[in-house]
Specification:
Two copies of one chain form a homodimer. Chain A is α/β, with parallel strands linked by helices. The first copy, chain A, has two domains: about 1-130 and about 300-305, 2-Layer Sandwich (Nucleotidyltransferase, domain 5), CATH 3.30.420; about 170-290, Nucleotidyltransferase, domain 5, CATH 3.30.420. The first copy, chain A, has helices at about 1-10, 50-60, 95-100, 130-140, 170-180, 200-210, 215-220, 220-225, 235-260, 275-285, 295-305; strands at about 15-20, 25-30, 35-40, 70-75, 90, 100-105, 110, 115-120, 125, 145-150, 155-160, 165-170, 265-270, 290. In chain A, α4 crosses α11 (about 295-305) and α5 (about 170-180) packs antiparallel against α9 (about 235-260). The interface between A and B is large, with 46 and 46 residues.
Chain lengths: ~300, ~300
């Protein structure tokens, strides 16, 4: 049946990136190429009455009737999602991810589990969706690399021997938003559509934030520089963004040094608007930034799907 | 005239701590003792129509008619205040502060200037009011000490040879407020009147925040610990507060080490509710906390007032 459907439709597998605010489905052919994509504003937070089955039908459209495996990564597997795919402990290989794939009750969808890493203090860190993007990088990047996945909560990931050995989350994007919106730092700032990544203010912020150990002190520079006229109102957001990202990079470098890893080269993965800022900030502090593919999540789903026998 | 008024009233000098949200006046006798105090919700932000002269009369009550010098510290000397008392550059002695006292146009009030410190990157930092508290510490603490002044924006101050040599502002109190109120960290937290300073969660937060170089990562622990059930909802605020204060102390220690100063002993100055948290957090990371006097600002105004010939 599945074989016939695959033959008829030319679709071998449907990969879904299902996050908090939106969902995207990809038709993948037998060679592993994406042949079509569909998108809907049906993130886990948006779904009325938690009717995930109906949301999936809506996202897939006429693909919904095909008897073809669907495989998803992201917040759809969280406690607030369709069904919880419990976190798998690091270090974790792809095989382990594939073994812990969770099916929805009617087998409408298989979901990749997230990862949990406990640091030496026992404090946990979690990711959900990024593990699949990392899996999608393995072909290009090999079995040992450092990656950063920019976002509201950016992730720094240490991959060793093809496993996610450890990672750290930095709430950089969210901190920028709340400080600009609700703290004294935003009061002297103009809201302009400035290309922060290219500005001198951004570069100055990166330099300052990466050199100052104390972030709670460093960020205050956005106020004092503006107060003394050294920073124009329209440059405050760029400077603060640079300061936060610079501090994040310096902290991640320190963490990786403790793990006996260097960050001469970092893979920058994702399609977030923040990626450009990291691609600018990293070289400014002596790190070579290598962009990862935009479709890392699809490539990861294909890879994990093969291990799970779905493809 | 002034001599007669002083004789008659028993008041030699009126010291005023005039901040953003409130104002407090102190009657000081010829021996330098405070004999009475008056308080009004007439902070710089609260004063309608910027009628500072009327606000001063209201604060002073029947003291207003006395021909006795009035001398203030705090935001009343800022650009948003009665008259700007421009920042004096560090390193600054008391003599310099006294020389730069600014009078209001009708000589209703003399105001202590704030301080400005420029770090090796040229980024400025500012204080206004705290310089007077530091001056009020010199009798007790001698000419060489480290002080922290907890608050919405806490200040770490390096005093050398009786001068304010350098300082750093940390926006710790404000960061706590905006993260709890507006970020994902507050979502798993209960709002309870917990004595954060005494709790195990606060101590755990201090230990974690002081050990983690990356604050944007460390704070995320408030979410993951709550998410995994390791931290109760009512302990989230205490843990986060500890994490931020611990990170601040570690960063300040690193900054002072660069200045060839150690922080074996730190003077904790102020009457903010945060003082108790610092007095708990500092010993937890091996620093002896010595409380400063609650009336440091009055003592500082007396001291600077004498240098300025007002007393």
């Amino acid at each position: 049946m599945i074989a016939q459907e695959r033959e008829r439709s030319g679709i071998a597998f449907i990969a879904i990136d299902w996050g908090t605010t939106s969902a995207r489905a990809y038709a993948v052919d037998a060679s592993g190429a994406v042949t079509a994509t569909r998108h809907a504003p049906l993130g886990v937070q948006q779904i009325q009455g938690a009717d995930f089955a109906q949301a999936l039908d809506q996202l897939l459209g006429d693909w919904a009737t095909l008897e073809i495996p669907r495989f998803a990564a992201g917040m759809i597997g969280s406690r607030q999602g369709w069904i919880e795919a419990p976190y798998v402990d690091c270090p974790a290989t792809l095989d382990v991810l594939a073994q812990h794939v969770v099916w929805t009750p009617e087998r409408e969808l298989a979901i990749v589990p997230g990862l949990l890493y406990r640091d030496e203090s026992g404090v946990p860190d979690v990711m959900r969706g990024e593990e699949t993007q990392i899996a999608g990088m393995l072909d290009d990047a090999g079995d040992d690399f450092i990656a950063v996945l920019p976002g509201t909560h950016s992730k720094w990931v240490h991959v060793q021997r093809g496993r996610v050995a450890a990672f750290q989350t930095f709430m950089t994007g969210e901190a920028f938003a709340v400080l600009m919106e609700h703290s004294i730092l935003g009061r002297l700032a103009a809201r302009v559509a400035n290309d922060a990544a290219g500005s001198e203010a951004f570069a100055a912020g990166v330099a300052y934030g990466s050199a100052q150990a104390g972030l709670l002190h460093a960020t205050f520079g956005a106020r004092t520089l503006a107060l003394t006229g050294a920073l124009a109102a329209h440059d405050v957001p760029g400077w603060l963004s640079g300061c936060l990202i610079g501090n994040e990079i310096a902290a991640a470098r320190g963490w990786l040094a403790q793990r006996a890893a260097t960050i001469d080269v970092v893979r920058v993965i994702g399609s977030s608007a923040l990626v450009g800022r990291y691609a600018t900030a990293l070289p400014a502090v002596g790190v070579r930034a290598v962009p990862g593919p935009d479709d890392a999540v699809v490539r990861g789903l294909i890879r994990i799907g093969r291990h799970a026998g779905l493809l």
